[in-house]
Amino acid sequence: MSLSVWKYILSVLTLAGLIFLLRNTPIEESWKYHTVSPPYKVQNQIQSLNFSASPPTLHHKQTFYPRLGQPPSPEEELEERNLLKSIAWPQPPSDSTSLDLSQTSDPAHSLFTIVTSKNNHSWYVGDELEVQVQLRDFKGQPKRYGGDLLLARLHSPKYRAGVAGEVLDHNNGLYSARFPLLWEGSAQVDIMMVHSSEAIAVLRRLREKRPDRVYFSSIFRRGHHSEKMVCNMFLPQDQGPLCNYTDLHTGEPWYCCKPKMLTCDSRYNHAMGGYTKDIITKKEALLFLSGKNVKVPIHASTKDNIGVLPSRKETTSQKADPVKLATSGYYYQDSWRPLGGISMRHFDKASDITRCLTNKLVYMYGDSTMRQWFEYLLSMLPDLKKLNLENLKHSGPFLAVDSTHNILLEYRFHGTPIRIEPVMISELRYVANELDGLTGGPNTVVALAIWAHFGTFPMEVYMNRLRHIRKAVVRLLDRAPGTVMVVRTANPQSLERDISLYNSDWLTLQQDVVLRAMFKGVNVILVDAWQMCLASHEAHNLHPPRAIVKNMVDMMLSYVCRVRTRNQGQP
Fold this sequence. Notes:
Distance between the termini: 90 Å
Structural class: alpha+beta
Oligomer: single chain
CATH class of the domain at 340-563: Alpha Beta
CATH architecture of the domain at 340-563: 3-Layer(aba) Sandwich
CATH superfamily of the domain at 340-563: SGNH hydrolase
CATH topology of the domain at 340-563: Rossmann fold
């Protein structure tokens, strides 16, 4: 045969070999991501956007809590152990799991009593008020163990005043609530049972064993071909390959089930998938009945109010110590008055806010409770123009500029996990990475709120996220000491229907304790959203009403534009 014929045959054989290889060799992943095994057996839907509404169940903590990124230092391990000890909660007796609803805490049968004053049955501004609470079950029998979650408030509708109380669990069905007396006149006690000890035992188990009770999804797309896959921070093992989106800088984990026909780098967006149902038994569901044993007031045995007389200067040594009572402030005439720290100013006019923020860059990172601050400032400042970046209503990012006064406002959601409408992958940024990208300085303000989307995960996850953010905050303050750092704490919310299983006040309170401890000693100001919401007459809400948001923003602005002495330099 001629040489041309041999070349033709060789070309045909080469082409056939290439076709065979392409059909039988899996597509390699991008260098940015890699497929890991195990995890997650899900029915892949080819060219479909439907997927199972009930992802596989996780059973053991050790199967889903990986130590990713840099291993924790001995100091960080010690910190984590101490933090877990600080939020340890009294557990009901082991035999309480077999109790009927009638033997669990019932706020309707429970009562509180105001402890008689030592000062001839009179109370004065500066004194401390104590209230004793007896928890009883639905049969009216006294409870013999603790672990219930109670919230306490002292308030006066006449003066539009209020302060949060401190509750002490005596671990025998008895509780004490203490309040500093901070205003003259009438004061009324409110005690609320948020959850029974038996309900909290269920929430503890869900937090440790069912981090999948809120799940997420991503669409993978190439051309007209799409696959929708389940994603989460934790996915079951030994069920198939995953796409690993662990952040290379912080080590924050995130996984998606690998599409059947697409590569991991074809991930297009992120969205909330849904709430996993049937995660508790019918018997356990009776512990979460709105209006019956979730966020229900406890009534007074006799009276629920006192009269407070003006302070007595000669007895200042007997005054309550608000710091000892962990009281950060109180309301009077609906205005928040912090105790200690900065002097509170109220920015009621647009001109006052503009004057404070002139020549300032304000970066707001976090969840939707921080977005409220952005929206509030946008509504207050007529010269602040929101730029149309074609972003979705809630997910952002958002940018607003006042070119006349040289003010820039930016809001960006924190990275996954995010329970939100679909958002582009390119817009997902971890707060620590964003902070590392800031120049900082005296004209830079950073406000953070990270809590609402972490309640369904083990507490170590939240600690890990805060640790990364804290390190980035410290790095920013080291290179730009004048940077103003503000951290908003968590707040209580309404708990209708099944919300407790996914965002309970008990879960939030534990996050609040951890956040405060982790930022202790760091040069940030904490805006105490927990006490500001608890002390208010407004109903609890995940997104507090505008009046509370105003006080929070005023607190931030008071810190940004605080009055400094000549020796203290510029803010």
